[in-house]
Amino acid sequence: MNFLLLGAQKYYHAPDTNPAIRFGVYAPNALSVKVVFGFLWTKKGDERIPVNKNHPAPISDIAGGYIADDGTGIDPALPVIPLFREENGCWFSDTKNFELQDFRQWDHVPYMFRITKNDGSIAYRTDLYSRCQIGAGQFNPEGCAYDDLITKVSGTKSCSVVVDPDTVTKSFNETDNQSDSIFPETNFIPQEKFWKDELNPAHPLPTRINDLIIYQLHIPALGFGHAGVGVIDDAIKLLDYLVELGINAIELLPVAEYGDKPETWGYSTTHHFAIEFSGGGRDKMKHFIKAAHQRGIAIIFDVVYNHFAADAERAEWFYDTNDNEKNVYYWYHGNPFDYVTGNGGYLDNMSTGFAPRYSDPFVRNLFIASAVTLLKEFHVDGFRVDQTTSIHSYNCLHANGNTMNDANVCGGDFLREWSRCIREAKPNVFLMAEDHSGWNAVTCSVEEGGLGFDAVWYADFHHHLNGANFGNNYAKLIPTAGYGGDEPLAMDKFAQSLQNSSLQKVIYHISHDEAGNAGRNNSDPDQRSHRTMILAVRNHLSQQDYPYAEARSHIAFALSLFSAGIPMFLFGEEVAFLNDFLYDDVLSKREDIYAQRHGEGRSMFEFYRAAIQLRRDCSAFRSNHIELLHVHNINRIIAFRRCDENGDYIVISSLRNYSFDQGYIIEHSSIVAGQWHEILNSNSKNYGGTGYDNHENLQSNSGHIELNRIPANTIIVLKKILSK
């Protein structure tokens, strides 16, 4: 693994010695770089009491942590540390500097880099390798003096904090809010001791990607019962609920320090090594991951490399220069005078910010080193990389939209380097890409010229099943059925995506993108996405319509779960959440999982739990084998077979609004003679249905099987009874 850890790192002059501290930063355009230290305090009357390791305080009482453009906020009691330039454009502190010989002295001290840019101007910059950003709020002082609470100032603009990566906070106050915790924490233990009891043989972690059942979770959307967004404490409390549900992997929407307000999705990452401070920070995240691992639940981080935060001043934007063409973290083509406006040379890539400079080894290093750190320090089990198509295919010139092939090539090379280094660090890591290119190389190994991912998100499956806001090329089964009519459905279109499901594809009926955010401003209501329960009755959910919404939602989930792919679903679907999940309004749309679990969503939860257990118990559903048996658009029925050496199963789904009471025959040459037993029926009373099922065994003859009945809007699973 060829990467370099910059930032505030331990430095050993010799083995078995106490470490010093060395500061490092990539600033190739800078004329000089110095480290300055921020001042934290609490007030006692008019007196400011310093906050440090010897004098910790509740986070809710601490002020400062921000250095203004004129230097206000620098701690005058601490030295200014000069850095020295090396040929590669990196700057480091003198390893012999006597003031830096004891790392412990600087642990949890806030700092920034004072950079003299190439035009002589002074800028204060955060450490992009920072393990902690001290702010927990939304306010941007915009370079002015700041003397208010750290709970109000944005962590992306405030000071970085020195952190010892080899220790973990032993325990935390029993609180529901990060602002009630103490900073700095006082009771640390060695990292090795902390992770010693991480694994529980009674609840082993999944080791194969085809064993995963992924629960997509956004921590700020939790927090039921307290003010403000959800925090890591809330996620820890959710784990036993998830054990009951049966999932074995959690994909967290981005948790790295981001430039948005806390109630957003978090896709504007500024500091890839730091865990969002407002949610609880790095050590609480380690406690969450450990608690999940003890319960047999793997943790997958959603990471963003296709853009930086749109508001990344004090982070990546113009880090050490005011010249567009030298803006090192961003790809810039040509010279500013080539364009009508100076920003014409940046690259767009269908994301919310300009493309990073993938050709720069130190930009790639930032992404690679942060991911390896998450594996080594946090014991993360895998990554979902956001919009990889933007990295290797979508790059185009901002000025005119011309495709930038050299950037696309460099983006692909970066992803290969990233995946290779990740697998060197952890060979059994799970790597998933949100990739819509259809390029087979995405899931080929690096050695074969591929990008090295295990699986890609399979968006077409969602579009054919739940994709209300997509055109007529897609089946859109659930929203079309939601109109309540009896016209034929495009079961054959959906069947193609079902047939193409595989263990190299993450299959989902709904994700964060499509649970209410897509098409939200479209004047045509038919082009807006929603939660499945709303789609299933096309925006007219009444008490009378609820059974239809619930029944169709069962089908949407089960078709994903029993496909040949890696199943994933968004939090709240299992308890019939109704509210749109909007990227910038998580808090006002929040719903209470626990209340729903024992309220209107109890039947849905029971169905999810039973279906998940079936997939986990039956290896055939975790195989690549899938065979279409029957597709009928008029009857709105699809049937497919899942089998391996351990079992043979037939899944039948009907989106018809009326039951087949006189039986239904499925014909296919692969059906052999034998007896079949119904092991799952979503119409069961346990799941809110009528209980109208196939309670007796069914007999198949060579080439066909006849069901006694198929209830309306139902999914059925049959298991072949092995002959003695």
CATH architecture of the domain at 7-166 and 176-188: Sandwich
CATH fold label of the domain at 7-166 and 176-188: Immunoglobulin-like
Question: Could you name the ranges where pLDDT drops below 50 across 5 or more consecutive residues?
Answer: 174-179
Percent of residues in helices comes to: 10-25%
Radius of gyration: 27 Å
Enumerate how many helices there are, as a single number. Answer: 14
Query: What is the top-level CATH class of the domain at 7-166 and 176-188?
Result: Mainly Beta
> Between the first and last Cα atoms, what is the distance in angstroms?
55 Å
Number of strands: 35
* Fourth-tier CATH superfamily name of the domain at 7-166 and 176-188: Immunoglobulins
Question: What does this entry look like structurally?
Answer:
- The chain has 14 helices and 35 strands.
- The chain is α+β, with helices and mostly antiparallel strands and 724 residues long.
- Among the domains are: 173 residues, Immunoglobulins (Immunoglobulin-like, Sandwich); 130 residues, no CATH class; 96 residues, Immunoglobulin-like (Sandwich), CATH 2.60.40.
- The strands form eight sheets. Strands 1, 2, 3, 8, 9, 10, 11 and 12 form an eight-stranded antiparallel β-sheet that branches. Strands 16-17-20-22-24-25-26-27 form an eight-stranded parallel beta barrel.
- Strand 28 and strand 29 form a beta hairpin.
- The longest helix has 21 residues.
- The chain is elongated and about 85 Å long.
